[in-house]
């Protein structure tokens, strides 16, 4: 068993909004959130006051403890207000990908039993259609403004009393993001107030921040990485978060230059752009002090190229997953120069890890030996919503969460992730479940069988690669036809980006797809 070299962290017995805003009065007039496109700024005093007023208005509208509210929005400076207002009103927040289709959104609404939606006007039609398909949604609110819908802006004027909710941090769910786990279709991950708040305390020694620090939030808040690293962590510690709604390289670089950004939390595709794109040379990025990459594997040579070009310490990595609130490993800020290339970091405080044999899961392995990574700690999820069997398959009776990732630890405690047991595809950090795409492909009248794996493109991104068996009635089915069929029915990040036609899908006697054979062939 591997244990953290950092001090244990006591569970944080606070609702997430109290854990984050505990020092808001101290930070007062300091900027908390800045819109990176138009410069609109919210101070800590305003953000604290605004989320309390919206919480009062939500409670007045009928939001009750135990309700689920779906937050369906790109990054805006209103997103944190909506999130913390909902938790203060007693709701659990299920975050929704802003580019999902109405059908995908409806599935999440139905599975989570969400009664409320907060969205933005450009996404309103998708939200309305999803609500119609799912049923059970009481009201759709908007962050900005739209005819016939109440807005958060209007709710700031509420004179209703602030709700006083008896929240049990250990049991009550604060966030309900959706994850595919190690396989299968997306499932609601129940993260309690205590789990999320404690993970913030665990991360603080290795991810320090404070007044004067400026963090650029371009990765989405709806994803647990963005929710933690770009929203909860910096707002808890008094830093300033500059918010961008999406990644556009020119806008991103201009924001770093104009807002004097000090820290970047990114995913590998952005590291690639920083390392190689000629546009980078046209901007002054001298304010940057560090870059941390997570959400997907980062090539060590690419990381080195990025740090050399920017004149920074080596790009650090972090590791975790939605089911772990999400963090378990980080390259500490004060150890970036000494960390070996390719490591995802060291165990954070209060966290234990085992590396177990792939051939004999009951056998623990030692330093330098590769096996499946198991994690135990206060940040392990409560479970999958309504899916006790899936929860039991993920977390064993002794509390160890089986990550599905393969790695090894060196003599100094650095973790290296080298492969995966799980079938999940990580496209630019977003989870794509092969089973979901396979089920969709099988609805095509010209497809007899299909299997989907992750393969890598020329940019080093893992992409969904479909292996398709044509029906005899469709001998001329083309790659572009297959890709278009999928693209019309899923969010952009789930699209199939490569198709190989095969005579038969390799399967075990049980019927399970032998994906390793397809990976070897690819």
Q: Which tags fit this structure?
A:
522 residues, alpha/beta, Rossmann fold, GMP Synthetase, Chain A, domain 3, 2 domains, 5-stranded antiparallel β-sheet, 16 helices, 27 strands
Using the CA coordinates, give the radius of gyration: 23 Å
User: What's the average pLDDT?
Assistant: 95
Question: What is the class of the largest domain in the CATH system?
Answer: Alpha Beta
Taken from the alpha-carbon principal axes, the silhouette is globular
Count up the helices: 16
The chain-level structural class is alpha/beta
Q: Could you please say which CATH topology of the largest domain applies here?
A: Rossmann fold
CATH homology-level superfamily of the largest domain: ANL, N-terminal domain
Amino- and carboxy-terminal Cα gap = 36 Å
CATH architecture of the largest domain: 3-Layer(aba) Sandwich
Number of strands: 27
The fraction of residues in strands falls at 15-25%
Query: How many domains make up the coordinates?
Result: 2
What strand line-up does the widest sheet have? Answer: 3-2-12-11-13-14-15-16-17
| Portion in helices | 25-40%
Low-pLDDT runs of 5+ residues are: none
Largest sheet: 9 strands, mixed
